[in-house]
Amino acid sequence: MGLRQRDSEQRASHAKGAWTAAAMVGVLAIVIGLLGDAGRDWLAYERSAIAGGEYWRLLSAHFAHLGGSHLLLNLAGLLLIAYLVGAELSPGEWLVALVLACLTVSIGLWVLLPDLEGYVGLSGVLHGLLAAGLLASAGRWGIDLWIVAVALVAKLAYEQMVGPLPSSEGLSGGNVIVDAHLFGAVSGCITGASAAIRVRAQASI
Length: 205
Prior knowledge:
Elements: H1 3-34, H2 36-43, E1 45-46, H3 47-51, H4 57-60, H5 68-85, H6 91-112, E2 118-119, H7 123-136, H8 143-161, H9 168-172, H10 178-204
Antiparallel strand pairs: 1-2
Helix pairs in contact: 1-5, 5-7, 6-7, 6-10, 7-10
């Protein structure tokens, strides 16, 4: 088997894993959405509840949503990420990127936004997954990924300097916590850099 064929088969396997992971995350988010307000209240990031020992909220909050439009918006973003960079990380690396993004966003909110009482949604994690896939594939970008990378950096910069993108709060149905996007992107850079090092190490063998 040639190196190029082996690389192609590995990328196909990675892409399949990414789509499987996206489907599982999507199903989980939809099921939680079907639980309605009661499910969201039990799973959301709530500072007082976490302080009282409900630590599962640090993870579960990212799979709960404000409503149907918020959920659909995030699921669309998840599918787009799987399409654009799904082949860039192994299934295990996608899992690490997902969990690390969840925890980084939640811990970032806890430490740096002490006045924030509540948070739900996958958007911070999505920024982490996209950043991870982009950084893992750095040096192999086509024009499409260059555009995505520039757009991601520009979006994060705009949100930090100005605030949420116009209409984003209307689409999501509530306040947009832009710092969650930044925290997620930082975690994604860590995972993506680790994956890039792995790829370069394998290529040098």
